Sequence to fold (66 residues):
Amino acid sequence: MAKVTIDAERCKGCELCIGVCPKNILGVADGINNQGYHFAEMKGTDCSGCVFCARICPEVAIEVYK
Fold:
């Protein structure tokens, strides 16, 4: 099982990663970062390690560990 880490301070809340996740395990956090954005966070545990989220992130805020 893979793990996704998201750098909340780099994330600008564009939600592109949420839309491309085939397992629907990413979502928007309730909190906000220092820039004032609701950042993405991992909401589930069934990550397949496809890295779609990391590839689409314009801020390079996502890393996937297999």
